[in-house]
Amino acid sequence: MKWTLLITAVVAVLFLLAQLVSLWAVRRVEQVPYRVVERLREVEVRAYPAQWAAGHSTQKARYAEAAPMGFRYLARYIFGGNDHEERIAMTAPVTLEQGDRGYTVFFGMPGGRSDHDLPVPDDPAVLVVERPPMRMACVRFGGHATDLRIAREVERLQRALEGSPWRAVGRPVVMGYDPPWQLLGRRNEVGIAVERADGQG
Asked: pLDDT tens digits for 161-174?
């Protein structure tokens, strides 16, 4: 009995240490820059600059299917599946944008990169595109993102925008900052492009 408790305690400590190391490593990954324009209670309205990104579109309508599929395509590209066989540094978050028939998954390219020096993907299903500057209202939540949780967070975001000077002008996007095995301190966000309803700013 003592040995069982001791082994369980050691495993728990090792697991906690592994999670903390993983969290530290994830937080050191370059993040897509933004500036907070306004706060609406738990919602941030952010200004994002134009950015180059690699994208893959899937007709998977469920987040649980679209996220890993898009990640696999984009991971091959940044891990050397391109005409230069170049490994490209990862950034955060991975962004999934809802469409009529599924999701488009995006990896932001590291700062300073553009179409002039980014390698061409080996797979034609991966496109390197410039995402335009935008203002986006975002709300943060923890745990693992699921279709049900995403729908609830989109509703929460839409309620926060009601009566505010901001109106939604785009489709919801889901932003994930952590690998699937990270259990502690997970950061997810739901966002939607917005503009000032009064035309100011």
From this structure: 998 999 999 899 99
What's the pLDDT tens digit per position in 171-186? 999 999 987 767 677 8
Pair 41, 138 in one domain: yes
SS3 of 72, please? helix
Report strand pairing: 43-48 vs 103-108. Answer: unpaired
- Count, residues in the chain: 201
Cβ 60 vs Cβ 141: under 8 Å:
no
Residues 139 and 67 reside in one and the same domain: no
Picking from 110, 131, 152, the residue at the C-terminal end of a domain is 131
- Which residue matches tokens 């923890």? 142
CA distance 157 to 23: 26
Is the bond preceding residue 93 a cis peptide, omega within 30 degrees?
yes
Using CA atoms, how far apart are residues 25 and 74, in angstroms rounded to an integer?
20
